What we know:
The structure is a single chain. The protein has helices at residues 2-27, 29-63, 72-86, 90-100, 102-122. With 180 residues, the chain is mainly α. The protein has a domain at 38-122. Helix 2 (29-63) runs antiparallel to helix 3, helix 3 (72-86) runs antiparallel to helix 4 (90-100) and helix 3 (72-86) crosses helix 5. The longest helix has 35 residues, at 29-63.
Amino acid sequence: MLRFLIAALILVPVLELYLLVVIGRHIGLVPMLFLLVSSALVGGVVARWKARQVFDGWREAVARGRMPEEGLLSGALVLLGGALLIAPGILTDLAGVLLMLPPVRRFVSKHARRSLERRMRDGSLRVTQVRVGVPTDFEGDGPTSFPGERPTSFPRSESSHRGASGEVDAEFTTDDEPRG
Protein backbone atom coordinates (compact mmCIF):
# COMPACT_ATOMS: atom_id res chain seq x y z
CA MET A 1 0.00 0.00 0.00
CA LEU A 2 2.81 2.38 0.88
CA ARG A 3 4.59 1.60 -2.38
CA PHE A 4 1.40 2.37 -4.31
CA LEU A 5 1.02 5.67 -2.46
CA ILE A 6 4.63 6.68 -3.15
CA ALA A 7 4.31 5.72 -6.81
CA ALA A 8 1.06 7.72 -7.09
CA LEU A 9 2.64 10.76 -5.44
CA ILE A 10 5.43 10.65 -8.02
CA LEU A 11 3.54 9.62 -11.15
CA VAL A 12 0.40 11.73 -10.83
CA PRO A 13 2.20 15.11 -10.82
CA VAL A 14 4.37 14.00 -13.76
CA LEU A 15 1.29 12.93 -15.74
CA GLU A 16 -0.54 16.14 -14.77
CA LEU A 17 2.36 18.27 -15.95
CA TYR A 18 2.59 16.34 -19.21
CA LEU A 19 -1.15 16.74 -19.86
CA LEU A 20 -1.02 20.45 -19.04
CA VAL A 21 1.85 20.98 -21.47
CA VAL A 22 0.16 18.99 -24.25
CA ILE A 23 -3.21 20.71 -23.78
CA GLY A 24 -1.50 24.08 -23.36
CA ARG A 25 0.23 23.67 -26.73
CA HIS A 26 -3.11 23.08 -28.42
CA ILE A 27 -5.20 25.80 -26.76
CA GLY A 28 -2.53 28.31 -25.69
CA LEU A 29 -1.15 29.59 -22.39
CA VAL A 30 -3.87 32.07 -21.41
CA PRO A 31 -6.79 29.68 -22.03
CA MET A 32 -4.92 26.97 -20.13
CA LEU A 33 -4.36 29.24 -17.13
CA PHE A 34 -8.02 30.29 -17.28
CA LEU A 35 -9.02 26.61 -17.34
CA LEU A 36 -6.87 25.83 -14.29
CA VAL A 37 -8.10 28.79 -12.23
CA SER A 38 -11.74 28.32 -13.15
CA SER A 39 -11.64 24.58 -12.43
CA ALA A 40 -10.19 25.30 -8.97
CA LEU A 41 -12.86 27.91 -8.22
CA VAL A 42 -15.72 25.77 -9.49
CA GLY A 43 -14.24 22.77 -7.69
CA GLY A 44 -14.22 24.67 -4.41
CA VAL A 45 -17.86 25.67 -4.81
CA VAL A 46 -18.95 22.15 -5.79
CA ALA A 47 -16.96 20.58 -2.96
CA ARG A 48 -18.51 22.91 -0.41
CA TRP A 49 -22.01 22.28 -1.78
CA LYS A 50 -21.63 18.48 -1.79
CA ALA A 51 -20.03 18.41 1.66
CA ARG A 52 -22.88 20.50 3.03
CA GLN A 53 -25.39 18.08 1.43
CA VAL A 54 -23.73 15.06 3.05
CA PHE A 55 -23.39 16.68 6.49
CA ASP A 56 -26.97 18.01 6.39
CA GLY A 57 -28.15 14.48 5.58
CA TRP A 58 -26.21 13.18 8.58
CA ARG A 59 -27.67 15.85 10.85
CA GLU A 60 -31.24 15.16 9.73
CA ALA A 61 -30.86 11.41 10.14
CA VAL A 62 -29.41 11.76 13.64
CA ALA A 63 -32.17 14.22 14.60
CA ARG A 64 -34.75 11.62 13.55
CA GLY A 65 -32.93 8.90 15.49
CA ARG A 66 -31.82 6.98 12.40
CA MET A 67 -28.44 6.02 11.00
CA PRO A 68 -27.22 8.30 8.22
CA GLU A 69 -27.57 6.83 4.73
CA GLU A 70 -24.10 7.92 3.76
CA GLY A 71 -21.42 6.77 6.16
CA LEU A 72 -18.38 8.51 7.50
CA LEU A 73 -16.24 7.09 4.71
CA SER A 74 -18.55 8.63 2.12
CA GLY A 75 -18.16 12.01 3.79
CA ALA A 76 -14.39 11.61 3.77
CA LEU A 77 -14.54 10.75 0.07
CA VAL A 78 -16.51 13.95 -0.59
CA LEU A 79 -13.81 15.93 1.18
CA LEU A 80 -11.11 14.10 -0.79
CA GLY A 81 -13.01 14.79 -4.02
CA GLY A 82 -13.21 18.46 -3.09
CA ALA A 83 -9.48 18.62 -2.44
CA LEU A 84 -8.83 16.94 -5.80
CA LEU A 85 -11.11 19.43 -7.55
CA ILE A 86 -9.25 22.36 -6.05
CA ALA A 87 -5.83 20.92 -6.93
CA PRO A 88 -4.65 22.03 -10.37
CA GLY A 89 -4.67 19.39 -13.07
CA ILE A 90 -6.81 17.36 -15.43
CA LEU A 91 -6.51 13.95 -13.74
CA THR A 92 -7.16 15.32 -10.26
CA ASP A 93 -10.23 17.21 -11.53
CA LEU A 94 -11.53 14.06 -13.17
CA ALA A 95 -11.00 12.03 -10.00
CA GLY A 96 -12.61 14.78 -7.91
CA VAL A 97 -15.69 14.92 -10.14
CA LEU A 98 -16.02 11.14 -10.01
CA LEU A 99 -15.85 11.16 -6.19
CA MET A 100 -18.70 13.68 -6.10
CA LEU A 101 -21.03 11.15 -7.76
CA PRO A 102 -22.90 9.02 -5.17
CA PRO A 103 -22.65 5.72 -7.14
CA VAL A 104 -18.88 6.12 -7.43
CA ARG A 105 -18.58 6.98 -3.72
CA ARG A 106 -20.63 3.90 -2.80
CA PHE A 107 -18.41 1.72 -5.02
CA VAL A 108 -15.17 3.12 -3.56
CA SER A 109 -16.56 3.01 -0.02
CA LYS A 110 -17.65 -0.63 -0.42
CA HIS A 111 -14.22 -1.71 -1.66
CA ALA A 112 -12.38 0.31 0.99
CA ARG A 113 -14.56 -1.20 3.71
CA ARG A 114 -13.91 -4.73 2.40
CA SER A 115 -10.18 -4.07 2.32
CA LEU A 116 -10.29 -2.70 5.85
CA GLU A 117 -12.27 -5.70 7.12
CA ARG A 118 -9.84 -8.10 5.41
CA ARG A 119 -6.87 -6.36 7.02
CA MET A 120 -8.60 -6.52 10.40
CA ARG A 121 -9.15 -10.28 10.01
CA ASP A 122 -5.55 -10.82 8.91
CA GLY A 123 -4.23 -8.80 11.80
CA SER A 124 -2.26 -6.56 9.44
CA LEU A 125 -4.14 -3.39 10.38
CA ARG A 126 -2.25 -0.99 12.64
CA VAL A 127 -4.22 1.56 14.64
CA THR A 128 -2.60 4.53 16.34
CA GLN A 129 -4.44 6.56 18.94
CA VAL A 130 -3.56 10.17 19.58
CA ARG A 131 -5.07 12.01 22.53
CA VAL A 132 -4.80 15.70 23.16
CA GLY A 133 -5.61 17.31 26.48
CA VAL A 134 -6.84 15.92 29.78
CA PRO A 135 -10.06 13.89 29.71
CA THR A 136 -12.76 15.25 32.00
CA ASP A 137 -16.14 13.96 32.97
CA PHE A 138 -19.32 15.61 31.74
CA GLU A 139 -20.22 17.23 35.07
CA GLY A 140 -16.92 19.08 35.14
CA ASP A 141 -15.96 17.56 38.51
CA GLY A 142 -12.40 17.04 37.43
CA PRO A 143 -10.18 14.63 35.59
CA THR A 144 -11.28 11.13 34.72
CA SER A 145 -9.67 8.37 32.72
CA PHE A 146 -10.29 6.82 29.36
CA PRO A 147 -11.80 3.31 29.51
CA GLY A 148 -9.25 0.75 30.66
CA GLU A 149 -6.77 3.32 31.99
CA ARG A 150 -5.70 4.45 35.42
CA PRO A 151 -7.27 7.72 36.55
CA THR A 152 -5.38 10.78 35.43
CA SER A 153 -4.75 14.07 37.13
CA PHE A 154 -4.38 17.62 35.95
CA PRO A 155 -0.91 18.46 34.65
CA ARG A 156 1.20 20.49 37.02
CA SER A 157 2.37 23.94 36.16
CA GLU A 158 6.05 24.85 36.27
CA SER A 159 5.54 26.76 39.53
CA SER A 160 4.30 23.60 41.28
CA HIS A 161 7.54 21.73 40.54
CA ARG A 162 9.55 23.85 43.01
CA GLY A 163 9.64 21.47 45.95
CA ALA A 164 10.76 17.89 45.54
CA SER A 165 8.71 16.78 48.55
CA GLY A 166 5.40 17.02 46.71
CA GLU A 167 3.85 19.26 49.39
CA VAL A 168 1.16 21.73 48.47
CA ASP A 169 0.58 24.97 50.37
CA ALA A 170 -3.18 25.48 50.34
CA GLU A 171 -5.96 26.79 52.53
CA PHE A 172 -9.49 25.40 52.35
CA THR A 173 -12.40 27.69 53.09
CA THR A 174 -16.16 27.37 53.00
CA ASP A 175 -18.72 29.88 51.80
CA ASP A 176 -19.90 30.37 55.42
CA GLU A 177 -16.64 32.04 56.45
CA PRO A 178 -16.15 35.68 55.53
CA ARG A 179 -13.39 36.39 53.08
CA GLY A 180 -11.04 39.13 53.72
